[in-house]
Structure formats: C-alpha cells, structure tokens
Amino acid sequence: MERIYVDTSVFGGYFEVEFEEWSKPFIHKFIIGEYKLLYSQLTEIELMKAPNYVGNLIKLIPDNHIEFLAVTDKVVNLADNYLAEKVVGKTSIADCRHIALATLNNSDLLASWNFRHIVNVSRIRGYNSVNYKYGHKILEIRTPREIIS
Q1: In 3-state terms, what secondary structure has residue 3?
Q2: Angle formed by the axes of helices 73-84 and 93-104, to 10°?
Q3: Which residue segment(s) compose the domain that 133 sits in?
Q4: Total domain count for the chain?
Q5: Tag placement on the chain: N or C end, fewer CB within 10 Å?
Q6: Phi (first) and psi of residue 125, to 5 degrees
Q7: What are the tens digits of pLDDT across the range 120-132?
Q8: If you ran DSSP here, which 8-state letter would residue 61 be given?
Q9: Helix H segments across 73-141?
Q10: pLDDT beneath 50: ranges in the chain
Q11: Which helix (H) or strand (E) holds 39?
Q12: Other residues' Cβ atoms within 10 Å of the Cβ of residue 2
C-alpha cells in the first residue's frame, strides 16, 4: 500500500469544479484502503481554518487508513533549510513544512494542487536538491490527477 502525504489543497480540491474530477476518486482510494493517508498536524491545523465541509472530509477516511504525522524539530529544521537555499520565499514556510513532513516520514508520494509553491518543476528540483544535500530521500511530488492516471 502506498503511503501518500496529502496537503490541504487536495481536501479543498475535492469541492472545486476545476479539481473535483481527480480529487474525488483520489480521496476514495484512501477511504477504501488502497492508499494510506499521511495526515499531518499541519494539515489538521490548516483544515480547522477551512469551511466545515472541507475540514470534515477527513472523517470519511477510516482511522486505520490514516497515519498521523507530528511537526517535529527535524521537520522545522529541514523546512528552514529549504528557505535558506531559497527554494521558495519566507511566506511559504507552511509549504516547506509539508515537504519536510513528507520527506522525513518516507512518504512514497506527496499530493498537492499547489502549483505555485509545490507541484512546480523548479520547486521540486529545489526541494530535492536540499533533500539530497542533507542525505534525505528524493521526494516524488505529483497532483492527484497524475497519481490516479
């Protein structure tokens, strides 16, 4: 079973016309247990600020199909390294923490609809160059569309 880190944009994408065609079957794969959801403390916090229907989507996924990830000092440090290497600007610290969470927890993939700061060839190369520099795995970063296709 693939362990996939899902950032907040995928939960929101479930309810957006532009992304629902791929987000709904993608989330369904977690519900039926085809994939294991790596769900982080950061995503949980971000979903608390989202509309209730977005935040409640996580309740459809059985607990035994979810692995909860805490934000640790190692996560914060790796995210700070992405900023220091100028992969993204300081306003993207949360995005860096999502990448660090997925990297340090050996996620098979990270799924996102964030094309500006995450699912972007130059950003992916930047994150992975930092990962390589510090001895971490190369992280596969894709959209739900790419993963289910």
Answers
A1: strand
A2: 120
A3: 2-148
A4: 1
A5: C
A6: -60, -40
A7: 999 999 999 999 9
A8: S
A9: 73-84, 93-104, 121-133
A10: none
A11: strand 35-40
A12: 13
CB within 8 Å of 88: residues ≥ 6 apart: 82, 95, 96, 117, 123, 126
Angle, vertex CA 119, rays to CA 110 and CA 15, nearest 5 = 75
The first and second tokens of residue 107, run together, are: 């996620």
- Tell me which residue has tokens 């160059």: 129
CATH number at residue 60: 3.40.50.1010
Q: Using CA atoms, how far apart are residues 23 and 16, in angstroms rounded to an integer?
A: 9
Tokens of 128: 């992975």
Query: Residues of the chain with pLDDT > 70: what percent?
Result: 100
Most distant pair of Cα atoms in the chain: their distance: 40
Q: Are 79 and 93 in contact (CB under 8 A)?
A: yes
| CA distance between the termini of the chain | 17
Residue 105 tokens read as 């927890």
Task: Please tell me what DSSP assigns to residue 121.
Answer: H
Burial letters for 10-44: b for 16+ Cβ neighbours within 10 Å, e otherwise? bbbbbeeeebeebbeebbebbeeeebbbbbbebbe
Give the per-residue pLDDT at 106: 97
